[in-house]
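Regression test case RT-17, inverse folding.

Input:
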């Protein structure tokens, strides 16, 4: 049992390092940057106007945040939200949302 726990912990730690984004930092940013206010705790929105993000893949979130930031995808609210995101923020947010 103890050995299994140690192995599992090592595997999780190792796979975490392989991921480009840091889901823990992404979770903090999701709250600190106000995403949670519209998209809801755990990415489950309670407001119909705002889409739930739970179930979206890391790749989808990364691509769409980059597109909102560049203006390739147009939405005044999200264009403004993404404008201030650094590449690392996008990586971390995508890792977090992709894990939901
Ligand atoms: C003021 C409300 C609001 C805030 C705050 C907000 N969003 Fe959004 N978000 C929206 C709306 C509205 C849409 C739908 C845009 C559209 O229809 O194209 C959206 C769409 C998205 C999408 C695409 C979802 C899809 O299914 O296509 C992602 C990803 C996303 N937001 C991430 C974030 C992140 C990350 C943050 C924080 C940095 C954030 N949002 C903050 C309102 C908000």
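Golden output:
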């Amino acid at each position: 049992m103890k050995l299994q726990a140690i192995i599992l912990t090592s595997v999780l730690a190792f796979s975490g390092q392989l991921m480009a984004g840091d889901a823990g930092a992404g979770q903090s940013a999701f709250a600190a940057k106000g995403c949670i206010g519209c998209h809801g705790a755990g990415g489950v929105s309670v407001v119909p106007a705002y889409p739930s993000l739970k179930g979206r893949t890391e790749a989808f979130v990364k691509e769409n945040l980059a597109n909102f930031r560049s203006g390739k995808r147009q939405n005044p609210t999200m264009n403004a939200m993404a404008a201030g995101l650094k590449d690392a923020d996008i990586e971390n947010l995508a890792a977090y949302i992709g894990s939901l």
